[in-house]
Structure formats: C-alpha cells, structure tokens
Design brief:
Arc Repressor Mutant, subunit A; 3 domains; 4-stranded mixed sheet; 19 helices; about 35% helix
C-alpha cells in the first residue's frame, strides 16, 4: 500500500515514532507512555492494522473480579454473613426482621447471608423461628471471601490466578456488570498485542526524515491567532485526496409530504377541512351513524377501549335524544328503527376512533348547505398487520352536502381519488354494505404487485343519519384508506414501509 506519511493521523504518527521493531505494543503501554485513552488506542490500532503497518502477535482472553461500591463498603463494615454471625454471638437469638433492622441490611441480604451460615453449620433457627449462632467461628468460606475482598482493594483479581476454593467463594459474591448490589463485578477482558511490521518500520523512518512529530496543528483557531501560538509550530497538510464525509441534508418525510399534498389538492377543489379527537365515544363512532348497539354490524369494527375514564360525562343534546329515538322506533326519519331499547350507558363508553366517519357525523349538525368537507383521520382498529392492513391507519374522510347531489357525483369523486390521488390505472366499483349509507359502494384499485384491493367505502347517508343530526338533504360520504393510496403513489408494496425505522429507506424514498 502506497502511504503518504503526511496524511497519517497524529495518533498514528506518535505511536509509530514511539515503538521499535520486535517490541510488544499494547493498550496499557500506550496509556502509560503516551497518555492515550483506551478509545484512542483502539482507533490507532485499527487504522495502522488496516494499512499493514502493525500486525497482531497475540490475543489473550481472561476474567477479572473487580470490587463494586458495595464491595468496598463491605471491606470496612464486613460481609453481611460476618456481621450477622457477630451480632448473634454478642446479642443472642433474634428474628430475621430484627437482624435486618439492627444491622441496616435489606431483608433479602439477611435471608441470603443467614442461609449461607446455616449451610455451613454456623447458625440455625430455634423453636421460635429466631436466628442463633451455633459455631465458634466464621465459616471457612466467609473467611476466604474476606481475604479476597482485602486483596481486591489493591487491584482486580484475575480468575486464572485463583485457587479452586477461591473461585467457588468469589462466585457467590460476583455478578456480571456488578448488578443487584453484588460485592464483585465480573469483567470479561481481551488483551491484544501488536508488533511493528516491516512496512511500519519503513514508514516510521520516513516520518523521522520528514520531521513529522504528530504534534502539528490540525486547526487554526481564533485563540491561536490572538496569542500568536501558531508561529511556534507547524501545520498538518491538507489531504486533498482523502475521502469526504457523507453529507445527509435534512428533508421531510415522504408520507407526510403526500398527506399534505392530498390536503392541498382537496382544498383547491373547494373542500373545507375538519378534524376531531382520537378518543371518542360509542355515540359518535357508531350510534349517530345508525349502527345498532350489540349487533353484528359492529363486528367489523374491533375497537380499542379506554381504561380511564371508561365513560364520557355526557352526550350533546338534542342529538342524543333524537338518535336514541331513531334507533328505537325511527323517530321522525320515516324509518321503523331497529326496534330495541337504546342503551344510554353503552353510548357513553370511550374508545379510540375506529373510523374516519366519526368526523363526518360530528360535522353534520353544523354543515352548510351546500357544503364540501374532508379530513385526514388517524384510526385505530384491532386487525392483523400485513401488507395492506395495520392496527392504526389513516383515512381520508369526506362529505358533500347539497339538494342536487347524487350517485353520479359520488362515482366521479371516487374515480378522482383512485386515478389522480392514488395514481391507479385500473379502477372498479363493487356493491358494499354499511349500516349508515344506501346505496353503498366500495372502490377497488389494481396494484402492480399486490393486485386488486379495496381502497375504501362510500355511499349516500341514510335519512336515519342525516335527519337525526339536523339535515334533510342528500349527503355523499366516503372513507378511503389513504395509506393504501400512498402505496400506489410512492411505488411501495407494503403498508409497513410507510412507517419503517430503516432511515436509509426513508432517505431514498421520493414524495411529492
């Protein structure tokens, strides 16, 4: 490898100048002799090995036992087993809770330590379930543990330097990363030793000849100019052929761009945007839409219930009374209703919004005639997640209110969404069923990979919906899966790609 010595990093330069062929080069040596930090050692080793200037000569793995803060405290106060044994010898029998209170130990510490004393025959419980000492001295294992703690105050203990008995004794006090108040922390270490290669020795000589020390300035600062310190040193040359850092400019999310583009398009067509809360009640989510309570029609909406508060305080009047009467006997809508007693407790139950039609329902009492409204609604429905379904999703929801609106107008709107907003080339309409519209229509589009799938539902609101909420004119309504439209528009094959954590995928995706 052809190496320009002037382009070497100061960490590399200082290391190469400091070592000689055949010498062992380790992190500990660089830390003590050059003042490097461990991270700087690893960087220098990685760079120089990749350039072929250093080679690995040995690698050793071993385990260390290092005292934790708890262990250092126990070195002065004594191990829990030692303190319990001494207390029992001095004060006589005591209950375990009393021992914990007297010695300032946790109940778990007392239980564990007393268990070890019992196992070694140094303590037992009497007839009254009180702890008492039975031996003359501490168990041998506790004595050994005390000695190990004292020894570890000077330096961490290497496992390969311990006897079999010492390993057994220390294993009862040690845990990896020093968890849960353990005495010792287990550290798995690996020491790698490097040596200078022939190429490394050649580069070192070039550095000496060029008088490159690694102390050269890499940056000219205002302070250096003010003090004149730049005059007392030399500067590192610029590496014009060095690879540049990757520039990653900020940009908006492609799906967020798409949602905003849809909003702008609908506003330009004369629609007014509406919105509402994510948490609603069963009244607006279903009852106001003439969906019967406790009926299989609600099975298509597997909702998420709110734990606290379970119920809304109240429902707006006169809409509650009018909707309840419509469910029971049709009210003044010309319908016979569903013929059951409306449950006023059920209708106040709080849920996560399961359909964007909630926004249309809440808009009806205040809608202008004529009027056009839309919303981008995030909905939540318990569903199996796959390429075209999600547990939470966005719908574009809208209504058109007017005396002369009809089915042909609705079909035109659906085609506009399918072709212009989604970008589909093949579109078809399929008869559907929704409790709140008649007729009901589903619009389907053909994806180049996923094939035909439903874009959403639509229809003309039934009088039971509109008259109950104060309107006596036709109302066109639709609720379309804007996530699915985005699949076509953005050229994706899976809804989950819209919300991927893969940042590279997000950077490459193109929106509007």
């Amino acid at each position: 490898m052809d190496i320009e010595v002037k382009n070497l990093h100061p960490l590399e330069v200082r290391l190469l100048r400091h070592v000689s062929p055949g010498e062992a080069i380790t992190s500990d040596r660089l830390v003590s002799e050059l003042g490097y930090k461990i991270g700087q050692c690893n960087q220098a080793f990685s760079w120089l090995t990749a350039k072929g200037l250093l080679s690995e000569s040995s690698r050793e793995k071993y385990t260390l036992y290092e005292l934790t803060d708890t262990g250092r405290a126990q070195a002065g106060e004594g191990l829990p087993a030692e303190r319990i044994f001494s207390y029992l010898k001095e004060h006589g029998a005591a209950s375990l809770p009393d021992l914990a209170a007297a010695l300032g130990l946790e109940q778990s510490e007392v239980g564990s330590a007393f268990g070890s004393l019992t196992g070694a025959g140094a303590a037992r419980l009497d007839e009254e379930r009180r702890a008492m000492a039975t031996g003359d001295g501490l168990p041998e294992e506790v004595v050994l543990q005390k000695a190990l703690i004292k020894k570890a105050l000077e330096a961490p203990l290497r496992e390969d330097g311990l006897t079999v008995q010492e390993k057994k004794a220390i294993s009862r006090l040690a845990k990896k990363r020093g968890a849960a108040g353990s005495t010792f922390k287990v550290i798995e270490k690996e020491d790698v030793t490097y040596t200078l290669t022939g190429e490394g020795d050649r580069v070192k000589k070039e550095l000496l000849e060029a008088n490159i020390t690694g102390e050269e300035f890499g940056l000219l600062t205002p302070q250096m100019i003010q003090t004149g310190s730049w005059k007392n040193g030399s500067f590192r040359p610029y590496g014009l052929n060095a690879p540049v850092s990757r520039l990653i400019p900020g940009r908006t999310n492609a799906y967020a761009d798409y949602l905003q583009w849809v909003k702008d398009k609908l506003v330009s067509l004369g629609f007014e945007e509406f919105d509402g809360p994510l948490v609603v009640n069963e009244f607006w989510n279903g009852d106001a839409l003439f969906m019967p309570q406790f009926h299989s029609a609600r099975d298509i909406h597997d909702v998420y219930y709110i734990k606290d508060p379970v119920h809304a305080k109240s429902i707006e009047e006169p809409w509650l009374s009018r909707v309840a009467r419509t469910h029971e006997d049709g009210g003044d809508t010309g319908s016979r209703g569903w013929g059951y007693t409306f449950d006023h407790e059920f209708t106040r139950r709080q849920i996560m919004r399961s359909q964007g039609t909630v926004l249309s329902a809440t808009q009806l009492p205040k809608a202008k005639i004529p009027g056009k409204y839309f919303g981008i609604a995030r909905c939540f429905r318990y569903d199996q997640v796959d390429a075209t379904h999600g547990a939470d999703f966005y719908q574009t929801e809208g209504i058109v209110v007017g005396k002369d609106v009809n089915l042909r107008n609705l079909l035109g709107l659906l085609r506009m969404f399918a072709t212009e907003v989604a970008g589909a080339e093949e579109v078809k309409y399929v008869p559907g069923y929704f409790p709140f519209t008649e007729p009901s229509i589903e619009v389907h589009i053909k994806h180049p990979v996923l094939g035909w799938f439903e874009l959403g539902g639509s229809g003309i609101f039934r009088p039971e919906v509109t008259k109950s909420l104060g309107l006596d004119v036709p109302v066109l309504a639709w609720g379309l899966g804007i996530d699915r439209m985005a699949l076509m528009h953005l050229g994706l094959n899976d809804l989950r790609e819209l919300f991927t954590p893969d940042i590279e995928s997000v950077r490459m995706r193109r929106g509007n």
